[in-house]
Amino acid sequence: MITYIIRRLMAALLLLLVVSAATFSIFFVVPRLLGNSPETLAVRYVGRTATPETIRQVADSLGFYDPVYVQYLNWLKGIFVGADFDTGAGIERCPAPCLGYSFIDKQPVLPELLERLPVTLSLAVGAALIWLVFGIATGVVSALRRGSLLDRSAMTISLAGVSLPIFFTGMVTLLLFSYQLEWTASGGSFTPFTENPAEWAYNLLLPWTTLAFLFSAQYARLTRAGMLETMGEDYIRTARAKGLTEKTVTVKHGLRGALTPILTIFGLDFGLLLGGAVLTEKTFSLPGLGHYAITAIPRNDLPAVMGVTLVAAVFVIVASLIVDLLYAVVDPRVRLN
Amino acid sequence: MTAGTPFLQVRDLKIHFPTDDGLVRSVDGLSFGLERGRTLGIVGESGSGKSVTSLGILGLHNRRNARVSGEIWLDGKELVSASADEVRALRGQKMAMIFQDPLSAMHPYYTVGQQIVEAYRVHNKVTRKQARQHAVDLLGKVGIPQPDRRVDDYPHQFSGGMRQRAMIAMALSCDPELLIADEPTTALDVTVQAQILDLMHKLQQEFNSALIIITHDLGVTAELSDDVLVMYGGRCIEYATAREIFQSPEHPYTWGLLGSMPRMDRPVAERLTPVKGSPPSLINLPTGCAFHPRCVFEERTPDGLGRRVLPELAEAGPGHLVRCHLPAAQRRQIWVDEVKPKLEAS
Ligand SMILES: Nc1ncnc2c1ncn2[C@@H]1O[C@H](COP(=O)(O)OP(=O)(O)O)[C@@H](O)[C@H]1O
Ligand code: SF4
Ligand SMILES: [Mg+2]
């Protein structure tokens, strides 16, 4: 077990290296291949008004004339020992762990990410709670009442849920609940949980429900399919033969069997969401990681984009590691080795 | 059958399933009785309605897609007309079932011990510790070595034979008075099969329960059963003591089954000569005698009755029931002159 965890952690680190190298290539090498010279890249950081001399100087101090692998290794080094960046107007220190320095914000990237993480985390946790409870319950009831009006309406609504884009459902809920009914906040504001839990929840209610609607739909369908399968298993008949109540049979035997694959998918979904719920954050103007990323992209803030990507990758990799470990706990037939 | 109402009395049990293809008459008018301490073997090819019968007795058919009629009296209580909750309270407690293929019949995510005492904990007020001890005791009783250790294993960690033993322990959890074993040894190899049958016999004597053994293999019933009920197409076609079924069977189908019985004293290849032809469709049973398309003696039935009229289940001797148009004397003649010598020669 311990050796398995260590091996998986090593593999996870290796994977992170690969991901970072790949991201690095995409954001730093591809522009070069597209014909951007070191100078045009440097212009992005110091602005067009700078003299050619300053631009060359900055490009040089940022290592743009170095071979790509040297640039990558320097970037990696920054994570461990920090780095200094010449902005043309002076030297800026980016302390370790330095994920890069945004020349546009004139800020190291990591603190910016950490500042936005609670928003994304709040969004993901709240939405996940709602969609797990709601999606699984709907799936179970639909499976037990298969073919009933309830089942058919739930499945129709959930089909809409999985196929409608979030900015559409988001806009509709915003219009309805916030502007028309004025029940909820219209988004755009975030209160940390530690400051005022009630306000925190109030502000997030709409994004939560919108995001949860999308996922509930998916989880309801998954749960329904899983329940239909497990409730037809021989062990369900055995459970009934023991004289257990239908509730015990359904929950303890049926749902327990159906939940395992859902756990896997949940782990990955949650990990992905932590990297930024881009569309939801955009629709409700929530200052989370996803919002940070899509603001950075049109501004050509490559270090920022690179930072978010890497953090998102960490979340996904860690989530999948946790899921694997949990799987062995949840399904005794799985041996870790 | 014995005077008075036996411990278990099934009367004219019908279990039909309406489906898109038509009405499936899986069990069509079955009657039998069984006392405590006695064993009934129900024998028939696969698809003859044996499992549907046993699930019917336990009240395990979904009332939404199964039509159950007739009477099932268990210790003076009628179960077909009883409410679902009343029947549920008896399941696991007064009547229990041992299923075929324990690997799929046990939940993969719970330990063997947890599954053994589940019924016990539902029907009795006991602490977790008492329940565990109960599981260990039962596992020891069914012959699992080191039961205090194996009790925490999961089903997949048991061998096939051990799993079947655990399944038996599970059924015995509440000392049921009626035990139904549906093909309890089908998934096992021959030596393990014999051990399991031995075990069931021993336990039945100890608990003095009524036991129904369901099997497609007459050999399995030979040793254990007091009485044998042969099923064909959802109906009883012969009912007699095990002794009579083996020594003076009267139905052509039973003769066929005897011919297909695996015999330990023969090499595998010579053992099996299954009854020719395939089991009937339960949606469109053949008219007349359901066995007639496969029956080699069909042309000997008087007036071609076999094709036209369903034979009654008639008394051929004391407690010996046969559903066949052939006159009893002629049947005995055929058995003695034609069938028995062939079976003995093969
Ligand atoms: N729920 C059901 N719906 C429709 N047909 C069924 C159902 N359960 C069993 N049957 C049919 O009843 C017949 C008898 O099945 P079964 O009792 O399992 O046979 P066996 O004697 O092999 O145990 C089979 O043809 C089967 O297809
Ligand atoms: S009634 Fe006729 S067809 Fe049916 S078993 Fe008897 S002899 Fe064969
Ligand atoms: Mg069967």
From TrEMBL, chain B:
Q: Which UniProt keywords apply?
A: ATP-binding, Cell membrane, Membrane, Nucleotide-binding, Transport
**Entry's Gene Ontology cellular component terms:** plasma membrane
ATP-binding as a keyword? yes
Topology versus the membrane: Peripheral membrane protein
What residue stretches are annotated with the ABC transporter domain? 8-258
* A Pfam family per the record: ABC_tran
Q: Taxonomically, which superkingdom? A: Bacteria
Protein family per UniProt: Belongs to the ABC transporter superfamily.
Q: Which NCBIfam families match?
A: oligo_HPY
Q: What is this protein called?
A: Dipeptide/oligopeptide/nickel ABC transporter ATP-binding protein
The protein's organism comes out as Pilimelia terevasa
